[in-house]
Specification:
The structure holds two protein chains of two kinds.
Chain A: H1 3-13, H2 19-36, H3 39-56, H4 63-91, H5 95-101, H6 103-113, H7 124-144, H8 148-162, H9 166-180, H10 192-208, H11 233-259, H12 263-287, H13 292-333
Chain B: H1 2-20, H2 29-35, E1 48-54, H3 59-64, H4 69-77, E2 79-84, H5 91-100, H6 123-129, E3 133-138, H7 142-153, E4 156-160, H8 173-185, E5 189-196, H9 198-206, H10 211-228, E6 236-242, H11 257-260, E7 261-268, H12 283-291, H13 312-329, H14 331-338, H15 341-348, H16 354-362, H17 374-392
Parallel strand pairs in B: 1-5, 1-6, 3-4, 3-5
Antiparallel strand pairs in B: 2-7, 6-7
Helix pairs in contact in B: 1-17, 9-10, 13-14
Chain lengths: ~325, ~400
Amino acid sequence: MSGGAAALLLALAVLPGRDHAAGALLLAGALAIAAKGRGLGRGLALGVALAGLVCFVPVARTPLGHTAGAFAGDAAFLAFAVLLTPGALREARPRLIRWVALLPPLSCVGSWLAPNMRIAILASATFTRVAVLFGLALFVYAAATRQRSLESLAFASLASCFFPGWRTLLLVLLEGWMLVSPDASSLPGRLRAAMAPLACLTLLVLFSGGYGLSRIDLTLIVLGDSDPVHPAVAWGATAVLLSYSASLVAALRLAVRTAGGPLADHVAYALSAFVLFTGADLLWLGAARPGVFLTIQLEEQLVFDVVLSALLLVLAAATAVIERGAPALREASG
Amino acid sequence: MRRSISLAAVVLLPLTAGSLLRPEPAASDGAAALRNAPLPEFEPFTRRVVVVVIDGWRRADALSGASMPNVQRLAAAGSRGPMTAGIRSFTKPCLRTLFTGRPGAFRDSLLNVAVDRVTEDSLFTRLNLARRAWGSSAYTPDFEELFGDDMREGAARAYVGKGADSFGAYVDDDAVEAGAMRILDDPAVVLALVHFGSVDHTGHILKPWSAAYREALASADRRIGRIASRLEQDRDALVVLGDHGADDDGHHGGPDALARETAFLAVGRGFAKGTPAFAPEDFAPTLAVLLGVCPPASGLGAPDPALLGLEPAVLKRRCDACLAARFASSPVLEKRWAGTPELARYLAAPRFGPAEAESYRAFGPRPGGSEHPPVQALLGLAMVAVVLGVWRRPA
């Protein structure tokens, strides 16, 4: 890893609060890309910066901001799905996949329209579950077989279930930018290794609301849990972990598109950065005797970093398996 | 490089997780002696105290009271003021602080599900030792998980709202209210705890600025009104308080101000009128005084004289007797504190005011330094060194 990237990650490791640094990084990065980009790419990068800003400011947490965010997110997802579906269907291989490809986006729309009740089989939660499960399966398949439109459509459907409102808008703009941008940008070589960890940090903060376990969005529990007598706690816990995985996967895809190189390298960089963050947290907590407020902030960071490192380890294993099986899968899909 | 990173993570992460999840040290003989120490008992000031905990009661909602007319009405006759929860603003650590007077621990930060059972003494231990009956009706099994020993040992009546789970994914406050009414039907009960969860739950799911949240507040207010109607104001007391607050997204658990800011309302026999600020550590000692028992010996709080409408001399006499018995029951404390000039000065003080309350608190055992042993620092250093070493190697 180059000296510049290592210095940047070390500086982040010793920062007690990473939320604001991450937000500033995203905005600066998006604006820098917008300044260099042209046409649609430039517009999308500017959109990412603006949507990221709205996610941070308090106006999003008012009744009016919430309604506007819900409308903006739904409208952006709908437009994205309509624009992408013809291309995704054209490139879908084998023929059976064409039928399955429509399932995640249609289920997303179904979950908006269906009643949020537990009695009917066509409840909102049922559609959400279908969108999450089929979206995940389709995304892995499309990523392994390099079907880019299908990959974007499946991932947007999956992730919009976890991150509604303004965050869906941000996600759709990011997906759009990744589709129209060239494969590897002009990011300076010395920063390439830091791209994946920085993207992980910023997207986790933007999508999950903050760097700390106290900000875990418990609304995820209702993703498939509408039965008050037998609440699906296991599903709730899975949904929480899946939501973090979705943020990490989005960040890794962004890193590949922005900095180039194989996905496994970026997973390794992100994993090593989060192991470094964990070590720095432990070092501060055990060696120094900071004040009470700083202690709890460091403890929150530490637990968060441990959970994310474990998730990245699982992603590293999954990436290795997919990379090994991908050629055979591509051959079979024709 | 990939292989080295994965190997380092596989080896180091379980070590980290192990150091985070290590069990709390077992209670020492000294702590057990302190828990079961025979402390003095007194004539109660109040026949019965009902404590209503509204989970996630945000300070702004509690003090403005736009959706809570019953709270407004009761506040006019008693005390209402701000309260700031501990830095681990999850429910269980906050309940632990409220009823033991001790702050939360690091393990409490782990998602609110890995909280250790309370092994030191609590307000309930004191009531059990004094053979006073108490009961709880709550939307989650938190009280049972935290104070299971006290519930088994004493004359406790406990009701847990049906359908609750470790994530609080479903809340049935109707069942909680029904359980509370059953406890109040028992004339022997001197302390009834009622823990409502729908305000917190609605805040998490539908956000604190939603209409549904207002309705949850109004519903909790109606329940408080019905419970208050069962009490006699000249003989009984009612306390309504939040365990913690919530931010504008309905989230809590960290040290941020909105997640910690909540409030309390205290009305009825034994409580003064006013708007004092109140510390959660002082809650159990204050209630203990009203109920005629000594404060929990392991707590760091003290009875709050600003909140109690009691004769200062009487309050001081009772606290002195508890303090003296506490020193006598613990050889460690006696050796450390009993002969100090500070104690002599405290015991000679003519009245019990806020300054004396602070002195009293100063005699309590303090947490012994950092919760994080040096071995964690060494592990952290190793992790940083390994990652930097891997980065220096050519890919």
